[in-house]
Amino acid sequence: MTTVGIIGLGTMGLGIVQAFAAAGFDVLATDASDVMRDSTVERLRSDLASRVEAGKLSRDHVEPLSSRVTVIDDVHRLHPADLIVEAVVENLEVKQALFAKLEDIVSRNCILATNTSSLSVGAIAEVLWRPERLLGLHFFNPAPVMKLVELVAHSGADASVVATARSLAETLGKTVIECPDRPGFIVNRCARPFYGEALALLEEGRSPSDIDSAMVAAGYRLGPFGLIDLVGADINLAATESLALAMGGSPRFHVFATLRQKVTAGDLGRKAGRGFLYPDRPGQPPHDAAEIVQRIEAALVNEAAWLFSEGGTTAEGIDTAVKLGLNFPRGPFEIRKGRSGAIAAALSALEDRAQPHLKGRYRPAPGLEET
Questions:
Q1: Is 140 in contact with 188 (CB distance < 8 Å)?
Q2: Of 312, 338, 231, 242, nearest to 276 (Cα)?
Q3: How far apart are CA 299 and CA 131, in angstroms?
Q4: Among residues 186, 134, 178, which one has the least CA distance to residue 156?
Q5: Per-residue pLDDT tens over the stretch 240-299
Q6: How many CA atoms lie within 13 A of 4 on its CB side?
Q7: How does pLDDT run across 192-235, given as a tens digit for each residue?
């Protein structure tokens, strides 16, 4: 396989273009927007220049890498591709229509991959006459830098297609973790309680600075609100609403009013100049920082245990995905080791005093107390 097609040239799509081109693949890149296509080369060169200045890329590699990228204005010109990765809007009907169209264009051996972070890969595949060649390759932003790729195989995926896709992603220098085709896969699902429990604490009157400083002191590169401000409150809200819907309105995925209010007010984080905490930084950890950390980690461990209990993944895979995808210092099963009793007790105490809209949020996962 030598030629890869990328559809969707926003930040994520352009990052995937760069990752494949850096690995020596010829890349055919396209977008429905004239503006996005016309600015692709300029944006790519700007990103590469930033990496050169940061010492992450040799200046000698810029021109060869750029020369492997061809911007095309019509998806019909993707017919030579051996693999196509779409990174378009998170909308089921849009993705289904795109892949249905591609089936009439590409060769029989072309692998089709979606970069969806929240939609069912099996649902996308339902409209295809050859659904077995579609799978999920979920990259993380920025794609050239982040080491994790979640490989999502729906129940009808061909084993040889899955194996080839894994090999291709590993060629990029990625760590590939196979994930069940369930809402949020691994990382986005396990991330929800990290954010959500911080929002629950905020609802109870704690400050973003107290919460984030406690988590940073415990070894986390960013606290929950620092991460929301980095990614964008609007992006976080969309992911949370999607998972809440997919999980049947479970209180573990409650959408907090404060998050909606931030989005409505336009306080989206760094890209808006203000957010939950940004432009401020966390202050000194509060006197009860350990209790804040225990509460957030208990919810994180519990969600990972729920995911594990559903089958289709491993404790090691969950830990690796969470550490690489979220830059956490330790995975939930590493946190859980030797602490299951204390975590279960913390969850029980939280459930006892939970507000009516959060009742059931802290119900322990099957087998949680097993060490």
A1: no
A2: 231
A3: 36
A4: 134
A5: 999 999 999 999 999 999 999 999 999 999 999 999 999 999 999 999 999 999 999 999
A6: 25
A7: 999 999 999 999 999 999 999 999 999 999 999 999 999 999 99
The CATH number of domain 3-179 is 3.40.640.10: no
The token duo for 161 is: 């297609």
Q: Would you say 316 and 310 are in contact if contact means Cβ atoms under 8 Å apart? A: no
Pairing of strands 175-179, 148-152: parallel
> DSSP code of 175?
E
Query: Residues spanned by CATH 3.40.50.720 within the chain?
Result: 3-179
d(CA 37, CA 21): 17
CATH of 187-358 given 1.10.1040.50, 2.40.50.140, 3.30.390.50, 3.30.450.40: 1.10.1040.50
Q: What is the number of other CB atoms lying within 10 angstroms of the CB of residue 170?
A: 14
Active-site positions read 117, 138, 150, 188
Contact, 194 vs 165, CB < 8 A? Answer: no
State how far the Cα of 203 lies from the Cα of 273, in Å rounded to an integer: 23
Q: What amino acid is encoded at 8 in this protein?
A: G
**What is the band of 97 on the pLDDT scale with cuts at 50, 70, 90?**
very high
* C-alpha closest to that of 165 among 144, 180, 148, 151: 151
**How many Cβ atoms from other residues are within 10 Å of residue 369's Cβ?**
14
Residue 234 vs residues 231, 239, 241, 264, 282: alpha-carbon distances, Å = 8, 9, 10, 9, 22
Whole-number CA gyration radius for the chain? 21
Other C-beta atoms closer than 10 Å to the C-beta of 248 total 8
For residue 58 the two structure tokens come to: 């040799």
CATH 1.10.1040.50 domain extents, the chain? 187-358
